[in-house]
Amino acid sequence: MGNRRWVILCIAVVSQVASVGALFGVPFVLPELREAYGLSTARAGTLAGLPALGLLMTLFGWGVVIDRYGERFTMASSLALTAACLCLLGTAEGVIGAGAVLVCVGASGGPVNAAGGRLVMTWFHERQRGLAMGIRQMAQPMGIGGAAAVMPLVAERWGFVVAMTLPATLAVVMVPLVLVFARPPRGAAGAGGAADDRRETARSQADSAAAPAAHSPYRHAAIWRVHGVSMLLGVPQASVMTYSLVYLVDQHGWSAPAAGTAIAAVQVPGALNRMFLGVLSDRLGSRLRPVRVIAVLAATALVLLTLSAAVAPAASVPLLLICLLLAMSHNGLTFTAAAETAGITWAGRAMAAQNSLQALSNTLTPLLMGLVITWFGIDAVYAAAAAFSTAAAAVVSADIRRRRGTKPTARV
């Protein structure tokens, strides 16, 4: 296999790291955000969910842009706009101004995931797509890990506004690299790519042709089930990620930098786990069977975490870290399943729709969990998240049973 596709994969990964830091970095500066605006934990958590609201408002439109104008234009535009919006945080006045800027950050940063995912899919044939997309989806834990390790330190010394300029800097660096390298396989091969690149591109296009592309995949229930599972699992993911740092600080007396370092450390096995699960899904010929196992394990760990505060307080921190690891594990599998179910013609829109529904989960989760915290305390957040993991496992199980005895049209 030629080296060009691996360069493309690296560009997609690093671009997504910059986007993830911008979109999901706010929870790691939550203590400084509370102090700056005099907010409660519940209200600060709501503010941290506003980038997801921006995602929700614009992602499907970005999906149309991806399919019409291509991945390179979309990724470069998104990274440039995200950096510009982050720089506006320093000029925002009050909570309303900061909230408006964070919404704009989410609106600008969303398409990098879908565009990079489609670009990687076109360069890798089906037999290696799980591995490639698993590596590609390692960008999220890598971005979160980098944000958790560095942003609390910067925020503690210089404030949350300065901390939020870090992903802006990386986004600016990536724009010229995307413009130079992020080309579709046909153009790359025509520009002098190696013969094996051309052969693998032909195989990739042949594999893609087998997926349903002539008609909208949204006429059928299969893709809606994939979206539904992803949306359900987005609730525990957002719950654990939003409140992990403040949980360690408030409930266990950790400093914010120490809590950030612990969260960052979990991202390393989390990233490797995505790659492993991608390879496993290639071997099994199914993207959703591993998702069912993840959902069951996550539900179990979240219930134990809920009970640990009263029964075994010493186990709370290890259980929290396990929940963090499990909560981030499903994305690569569900993302790939959505794209393969849709087919390459609809892949950009399908991945944008997938991200939109995840953004809906990420937007509503802080609001829902803010009410849970207000009424029952922070430990109850994990019990509520466990219920959503259980529901996701039930949906996957029903989908797998429905497919038994039938010949699938795509690997899901």
Largest sheet: none
Q: Give the proportion of residues in helices.
A: over 70%
Tally of DSSP β-strands: 0
Radius of gyration: 20 Å
What would you call the shape? Answer: globular
Secondary-structure class: mainly alpha
Please, how many helices?
20
Kindly report how far apart the N and C termini lie.
Answer: 25 Å
Order of helices and strands: HHHHHHHHHHHHHHHHHHHH
Strand content: under 5%
Question: Which whole number gives the mean pLDDT?
Answer: 80
Indicate the low-confidence ranges by residue numbers.
187-214, 407-411
Task: Give keywords.
single chain, 412 residues, MFS transporter, membrane, MFS, transmembrane helix, MFS_dom
Description:
The chain is mostly helical. 83% of the residues lie in helices and 0% in strands. The chain is built from 20 helices and no strands. Helix 1 packs parallel to helix 8 (126-137), helix 4 (50-69) packs parallel to helix 6 and helix 5 (71-87) packs antiparallel against helix 7 (111-123). The chain is globular, with a radius of gyration of 20 Å. Mean pLDDT is 80; it is low at 187-214 and 407-411. It is a multi-pass membrane protein. InterPro entries: MFS (IPR011701), MFS-Transporter (IPR052952), MFS_dom (IPR020846), MFS_trans_sf (IPR036259). This is MFS transporter.
